[in-house]
Amino acid sequence: MIQNIIASLLFQSAFLMLYDIFLRRETFFKWNRFYLIGSYILSMVLPLVKIEIFNAVVPKRVLSYSAYLFDMDPFSDIQLSGNQAANGELPIWDLILFSGMVVAAFWFGYKLYRLRKLRSAGQVHHFRGFTKILIPDTNQAFSFFRSVYIGDQIPQNKHRSIIQHELVHIREKHSLDLLFFELMRIPAWFNPFVYIYQKRISELHEYIADDSVVKTNKKEHYLQLLSEVFDVENISLINQFSKSSLIKKRIDMLQKTKSKSIRQLKYLLLLPLISSMLLYSSCESSEKTDLDPEISVQDVQNLNQEEEKEVFKTLKSLSTASNEWSLTITDKENTMKFLPASGDAFITGPNNERIKARKVFGPSIEFSSANISPDVVPFGLVYEVPVFPGCENAQDKRTCFLEMIMEHINQNFNYPKEAEEQQIEGRVNVIFTIDQNGMITDIQKRGPHALLEAEAVRIISLLPEMSPGKDKGKNVSVPFSFPLTFKLDKT
């Protein structure tokens, strides 16, 4: 989310720079109006567009579980439980963001209240196509949607020109543009560019109205009218007839020679600019943000005590700070990644603390997805799990299976003497398959030492024949994995 916001701000600054340098002084007013509205919308959409052809990131050595295996590991750190109570604390940046949005929303409501108050205080006259509201004790003039507000202190002979001007705003529906940016200022109250966009579109509205009026009105009379500064109601969502900061620009633009059609080719500058933005948003950034940290360790499969504490401390901080984050653990060759958990999933940390996270890439055992057939279903997804001997009459055969596996490991586990003598410790990750006949096949392992790997394979090889798993009414092969930790008692 934060990366998308940053990208959106960068794109808006680029669009505004192109407008100010190449387009703002041209008399293609309606094209420029389309440009300002369209470029702002594009700036919000482009960060979400990811074109695969641009996303050519060469990965580190990829050693990970295949995608279809992600949900098969009941002994990994990912577990399921009942609903977990939220801590009720809102991260500080979220608190600041939402507080600003609330203030911006109230300010928007206050502007609407001021308009309503002006309307109720004035004399309302209905005409075909618009409503004229005569405001007492002021010389203001502006429009909002189909209503034209004119102060009673403005001479009557000037009303016609002012109304002509404001009717252009009404016909062109300029209030919709201002309202659009006004609403954008609520969620993006912190964004300086949305205020610049609104200022540019308001300026452009006046150019469009002026250009239309001078075609039917005497130019000299209209220029004189513009030069008179009226009071201005400071409401950013209205079209103001006279604003001192705009008077000189409007007069200069009225006296400017019409831009030649060939200059419309300037809009083609959008093509390389948008292409660059697509390239930027599609390419995976190599820079790490506060919500995308990377921790380097000696061995991702066998974290030492200090590394494990650092990982879980970081996970806890990330999981409470945002809904979008990632944590990458790397060694010289391999990568392990954590992402936010969905539903009731969580990771159990030190002291059985639950953290809302899930492991996407684990310490890996290569298992080619090219060899996978429709007859292979992960343990976490299979409709009927394999039945371990002794679980035939169990009400929950899945839980019984896990309990019997644990009992089997405890009964058959022996620490290799040679590994004990050499003080070898660590975790061995094992994958095996219970095939369509209930036999144990395709044992794969990955650990810190061959002695520990051999012991893990020996334990799995002693598993009994089982009743095969079933899915969609037929026998299927069921891959199953678990981590086996070898730890010496040094007391």
Automatic annotation (TrEMBL):
According to its UniProt record, where is this protein located? Cell inner membrane
What GO CC annotations are associated with the protein?
A: plasma membrane protein complex
The record's section on Gene3D superfamilies has: 3.30.1150.10
Name the keywords, alphabetized: Cell inner membrane, Cell membrane, Membrane, Protein transport, Transmembrane, Transmembrane helix, Transport
Instruction: Report domain TonB C-terminal positions.
Output: 400-491
The membrane-topology field of this record reads: Single-pass membrane protein
Predominantly, its location class is membrane
Is this entry keyworded Hydrolase? Answer: no
- Its domain of life? Bacteria
> So where does this one cross the membrane?
6-22, 34-58, 90-110
What GO terms describe the biological role, i.e. biological process, of this protein? protein transport; transmembrane transport
Q: Which GO terms describe its molecular function?
A: energy transducer activity
Family per record: Belongs to the TonB family.
Query: What is the name listed in the Swiss-Prot or TrEMBL entry for this protein?
Result: TonB family protein
Species annotation: Poritiphilus flavus
